[in-house]
Design goal:
Radius of gyration: 19 Å
GO molecular function: DNA-binding transcription factor activity; transcription cis-regulatory region binding
Largest sheet: none
Structural class: mainly alpha
Keywords: DNA-binding, Transcription, Transcription regulation
Pfam family, one: TetR_C_7
Protein name: HTH-type transcriptional regulator BetI
Low-confidence stretches: 1-17
Shape: elongated
Organism: Methylobacterium gregans
Distance between the termini: 37 Å
Helix content: over 70%
């Protein structure tokens, strides 16, 4: 995660130390978000982004030297923040089912957000031409989340609450059990976002199946 963030902020980004410059950078990123969401990566222009952000093109280029650098910064920083908040797990919490239930519900709610689905589509569409987009996005989001869940599962294996296993693979298994095709459906616009009842059902079943496979030896 750190490597991805450093890569992003080092490419075309020169934020100064002052709080004013930090606020200006956030203002630019918010303008970029609006334009990318409305026009997509290919359809967006630096001129439109500058207008949406309320800054001159000259100011925009002080912070980001290209549309590519701006898109990478926006997508990685947003994904990084989501992963850090979503996967803030207390390794000392002994109630594995409750922890996974809360995580699963929050995870699916986040994955189903229309703006999140749109960002994933844009990254997938752009990463063939700009492979680093996909790598940076993956490291800042999915890889970070799996790593944090792995750390929690490691602690539960040590405490005897889960059986010894490949905890990185177990973390991936749990997240995929929760999704179970939901994200694919949304990416292809092949159905509506899940209802609260669907999310609850998906998570309940994911926790049940996960515990059946990884619960403590009896």
């Amino acid at each position: 995660m750190t490597g991805a963030a450093t890569l992003t902020r080092g490419q075309g980004t020169q934020p100064g130390p002052s709080s004013g410059e930090g606020e200006k950078r956030r203002q630019i990123l918010e303008g970029a978000r609006q334009v990318f969401m409305a026009s997509g990566f290919d359809g967006a222009s630096m001129g439109e982004i500058a207008k949406a952000a309320g800054v001159s093109k000259g100011t925009l280029y002080v912070y980001f030297d290209s549309k590519e650098a701006l898109f990478e910064a926006l997508t990685v920083e947003e994904k990084e923040g989501l992963a850090e908040n979503l996967f803030r797990l207390d390794e000392a919490d002994p109630d594995v089912r409750a922890v996974l239930t809360r995580l699963g519900a929050s995870y699916l709610a986040m994955m189903a957000r229309p703006e999140h689905v749109s960002i994933i589509r844009m990254v997938i569409g752009a990463c063939e031409k700009f492979p680093r987009f996909g790598q940076a996005f993956y490291e800042a989001g999915p890889a970070c989340g799996v790593g944090r869940l792995k750390a929690y599962l490691d602690a539960q294996v040590t405490a005897g609450r889960l059986r010894a296993c490949d905890t990185e693979l177990a973390a991936k298994h749990f997240l995929q059990l929760c999704q179970a095709g939901m994200l694919t459906r949304l990416l292809f616009n092949a159905g509506a976002a899940p209802t609260d009842d669907e999310i609850r059902h998906r998570v309940t079943e994911a926790v049940r199946v996960f515990h059946a496979g990884y619960g403590p030896e009896v």
